[in-house]
Design goal:
About 25% of the residues lie in helices and about 30% in strands. The chain folds into 2 domains: about 80 residues, Urease, subunit C, domain 1 (Roll), CATH 2.30.40.10; about 290 residues, Alpha-Beta Barrel (TIM Barrel), CATH 3.20.20. The longest helix is centred in the first third of the chain and has 16 residues. By secondary structure, it is an alpha/beta fold. It starts with a strand and ends in a 6-residue tail after the last strand. Bound molecules: zinc ion. Zinc ion binds next to strand 8. The site of zinc ion has 7 residues, from strand 8.
Length: about 400
């Protein structure tokens, strides 16, 4: 796109929504965002009334558009995601045969290194969902690939592609997990708790050990009872830890999405898709992690009915969150932007992403009045949609 000023748009900024904004972009960064004065100079690009949000950052995604992270199809996923408003993501690898995970981690490392040469969402590194999980809360992850938390096994995974693993889901009740969490933190990995049957107290001990995030809150963990707050109750009430919500409207009832946001506070919530390869494809039978799954257009399930990831890419999460109760969570657009971009960026320590403000990367998602993504820009370049004018 080159240096330009976006006009004819609403901008969702940390200071509020600017109804008639001018967003100045130079060298792939946002230089200024102001109310339009009509005195702007340089190349103008009129967005025709779209609403501009910070580009969405997905910390938990296994695939979409037929691309599968476990098969190493990382670049294909990066190319697909901009149509969902996603500008950066963590390819997520559920526990699998170790040789396949190692190969997929190498694919993530290679695809991140080649990132600049390619049009698509930025690959931020990998999210390892396992293998140190509780088999009793495996969900759709094949339990035969789950293991006690052994330092040697962890070292083999981290060494497969040095620096590639940015986030790891660990169950505090996997044998050895509490001892391994400090080593993960020391290696620069954000530890996320999930796929666990622990109670409130043991969940808190894992936070004491250094865990800072919660994998798909409510799903595959102990829920809230009024005398037994469980893992979910611990995650929602401990300010040291953030939570993920799968906002496809299927994994969690919209009223509970709204409740979780109110309990946790907007700055503690990151929306994730947990999407799998069939997301964005027609309903039908597909394979996932060596298992047969069926997509009905709303959900993906194993033959026994267990949810196997979601079809809810982050554009759909946005629509769910801003729809009024009981169809959605009733969030404002400004709050939705925080959960889709600002919080995920902060969790990974990305100082230049996740916010629509001067000095940040020009990673933008522009949506129409129905919340449908029409235009996506990564590093100042249009990667989805068509930009009129010039
Ligand atoms: Zn997952």
């Amino acid at each position: 796109m080159g240096d330009a000023t976006l006009i004819g748009c609403r901008a969702v900024t940390p200071g509020g929504i600017l109804d008639d904004a001018a967003i100045e972009i130079a060298d792939g960064q946002i230089v200024a965002i102001e109310a339009r004065t009509g005195r702007e100079i340089g190349t103008m690009r009129d967005l025709g009334g779209l609403t501009v949000l910070p580009g969405f950052i997905d910390l938990h995604i296994h695939g979409a558009g037929g691309a599968d992270t476990h098969a190493g199809e990382i670049a294909a996923l990066a190319a697909f995601l901009p149509r969902c408003g996603v500008t950066a993501f963590l390819p997520t690898l559920a526990a699998d045969a170790e040789a396949r995970t190692v190969a997929a981690l190498r694919a993530v490392g290679a695809a991140s290194a080649a990132g600049g040469a390619r049009r698509g969402a930025t690959i931020l590194g990998a999210h390892l969902e396992g293998p140190f999980l509780n088999p009793a809360r495996a969900g759709a992850i094949p339990p035969e690939h789950l293991h006690p938390a052994e330092p040697a096994r962890l070292a083999r995974l981290l060494d497969a592609a040095p620096g590639a693993v940015r986030l790891m889901t660990v169950a505090p009740d996997a044998p050895g997990a509490l001892e391994l969490i400090p080593a993960l933190v020391a290696a620069g990995v954000v530890v996320s708790l999930g796929h666990t049957a622990v109670d409130y107290d043991l969940f808190r001990r894992a936070i004491d050990a250094g865990a800072r995030h919660t994998t798909h809150l409510f799903n595959a963990m102990t829920g809230i009872g009024h005398r037994a707050p469980g893992a979910a109750g611990a995650a929602l009430t401990d300010e040291r830890i953030t939570v993920e919500l799968i906002a496809d409207g299927e994994h969690i009832h919209p009223a509970i999405l709204a409740l979780a946001v109110r309990a946790k506070g907007i700055a503690g919530v990151a929306l994730v898709s947990d999407a799998v390869g069939p997301a964005g494809l027609p309903p039908g039978e597909y394979a996932w992690l060596g298992r047969r799954v069926r997509s009905d257009g709303a959900t993906v399930r194993l033959p026994d009915g267990t949810l196997a990831g979601s079809l809810g890419t982050l554009d759909r999460a946005l629509q769910t969150m801003i729809a009024p109760l009981p169809r959605g969570a009733g969030l404002s657009l400004a709050d939705a932007a925080i959960t889709l971009a600002t919080v995920p960026a902060r969790i990974l320590g990305l100082a230049s992403k996740g916010t629509l403000a001067p000095g940040y990367d020009a990673d933008l998602a522009a949506v129409d009045d129905r919340g449908v993504v029409r235009l996506t820009i990564v590093g100042g370049e249009v990667v989805y949609g068509v930009l009129a004018g010039g």
